[in-house]
Amino acid sequence: MNTFIQPKNALISVFYKDGLGPIIEELSRLGVTIYSTGGTQAFIEGLGTEVKRVEDLTSYPSILGGRVKTLHPKVFGGILSRRELESDNEQLKEYDIPEFDIVIVDLYPFEETVASGADEQSIIEKIDIGGISLIRAAAKNFKDVAVISSKDDYADFHSILKENNGTTIEERRRFATKSFHISSHYDSAIFSYFDKDDTAFKFSMPNGTVLRYGENPHQKGVFYGNLDGFFDQLHGKALSYNNLLDVDAAVHIISEFEDTTFAILKHNNACGIASKNVLKDAYVAALAGDPISAFGGILVCNTELDLDTANEINSLFFEIIIAPSYQNEALEVLKSKKNRIILVQKETALPNRQFRTILNGILEQDKDVTIDRAEGMKTVTEIEPSEQQLADLEFASKVCKNTKSNAIVLVKDNQLLASGVGQTSRVDALKQAIAKAKQFDFELEGCVMASDAFFPFADCVEIAHEAGVKAVIQPGGSIKDQLSIDYCNENKIAMVTTGTRHFKH
Q1: Is 422 within 8 Å of 433 (Cβ atoms)?
Q2: Nearest C-alpha neighbor of 340 from the set 262, 233, 253
Q3: Is 505 designated active site?
Q4: Most buried one in 30, 155, 239, 305, CB count within 10 A?
Q5: Residue 326: enclosing H or E segment and its boundaries?
Q6: How confident is the model over 278-325, as pLDDT tens digits?
């Protein structure tokens, strides 16, 4: 096995040429013979470097509008030949095939073309055939061939050539691993484009970051994705597994609100949230919902964080704060604590699919993007909710939708008073919410209640009425809905239904 190889021949054919120039310079310095095609050939010649045409090697021109140009035994023979086998070497000599020690090939931008909204024929033409074959062949024979399949690796490969004049077996294996990843990701994207009937689960995420640990220290944790595309981190330590879970929950709940809103989350649930005209007031109201749980929590808002708000929250111990932007003075205040994680959320669309592992398989579903608006609510009681109650019901429904089931949420004046989270019965969730509200001295008289699912009996509205609830929002759909409706009518409580359940398990 050749552990170190100083290259003699290179095949280069790329879509992205940015950053390629320094590599060409190094190959020229090393006396490497370069073979190329089309636009890449013209680019290399433009640098003043001699290039041999693949067409001259194969004795075939590029045909079918460029669909076929490198698919030839003289190309693939030079890539796949096993240098340690005398029979392979004899055949290379017999057919005048050069050994390719370096293959630099990338792929047509299929995903980018799909994302652009291009027509189907344009998308089809971006399915790479020759490129993917060259990458796989070179990666398979990494013992003898260095394969560079992404412009992201140009700088790394250039440094290796400049410092060492060749490649080691470890380096070639690393590039091969990257190439197989690129190849499989590319095929997954193509399959997903064609698979409209969800016949198989294919999902590929190109970037993996090893975390300190998973949900607990004895568990390994990895994040696959591109956080830089979603956030700018301005301060603090690296995000942990649990941090990321909380951040995800924070981003989803704040995305539901258009008015100036501040939320505090703990263990993926809002322990406080409020909408007010002034951000500082929204924070103060959110904190009042549960100042105990707010300790070590995740803070998020949907408008620029100003100095007054920063001064107000600075005394609170919290892990992370997320905002679309920060006043410079506010940022300096928040940076006074070394380990605080400060994130700027970019305007990036959230995925509309979600999945989780179960048993020996995977569950996949569309995300719950339905928002219960006041105009879509159906009043099922004799008494109509007031304008403020409708606003509170909409607010409560948004919070309830983003709370672990079984969930009950109590709201007044666009402020979360308390919630019952993740209980095994809806009655328990309601009792938890009432007890929590009383713990923090909230007056429940005149508040509204949201439930993530229907009431199978009238017990919840009875308990809610005794606590002071005056309006209720729920999906409806129980065969015993009328029991709850009748109780509300008898006790002057407004009830609206949405027809949409918001379980979150």
Answers
A1: no
A2: 233
A3: no
A4: 305
A5: none
A6: 999 999 999 999 999 999 999 999 999 999 999 999 999 999 999 999
Please indicate whether residue 16 or residue 104 has the higher confidence score (pLDDT). 104
Query: Are 174 and 41 spatial neighbours (Cβ–Cβ below 8 Å)?
Result: no
Output phi, psi for 309, to 5 deg.
-65, -40
Is residue 267 flagged as an active site residue? yes
pLDDT digits (tens, 9 = 90+) for 146-204: 999 999 999 999 999 999 999 999 999 999 999 999 999 999 999 999 998 888 888 88
Architecture of domain 375-497: 3-Layer(aba) Sandwich (3.40)
109, pLDDT greater than 80: yes
**One-letter amino acid of 303:** T
**What tokens appear for 63 in the block?**
């045909």
CATH T-level assignment (fold) for domain 4-194: Rossmann fold (3.40.50)
Report residue 485 as tokens: 């409706």
Q: Choosing from 8, 52, 126, 140, which is the catalytic residue? A: 140
User: In whole angstroms, what is the distance from residue 240 CA to residue 222 CA?
Assistant: 9
Q: Tell which CATH architecture fits domain 226-345.
A: 3-Layer(aba) Sandwich (3.40)
The H or E element containing residue 494 is strand 494-497
Distance CA 236, CA 370 (A): 34
C-beta of residue 321 within 8 angstroms of C-beta of residue 299: yes
Domain ranges of the chain: 4-194, 226-345, 375-497
The reply to whether 226-345 and 375-497 are identical in fold is yes
CA distance 165 to 154: 15
Residue 1 has pLDDT above 70, yes or no: no
**Single-letter code of the amino acid located at 369:** V
Section 405-428 average pLDDT: 96
Radius of gyration of the chain (CA): 31
Given 52, 162, 267, 431, the catalytic residue: 267
What are the b/e assignments for 148-181, b being 16+ CB within 10 Å?
bbbbebbeebbebbeeeebbeeebbebbbebbbb
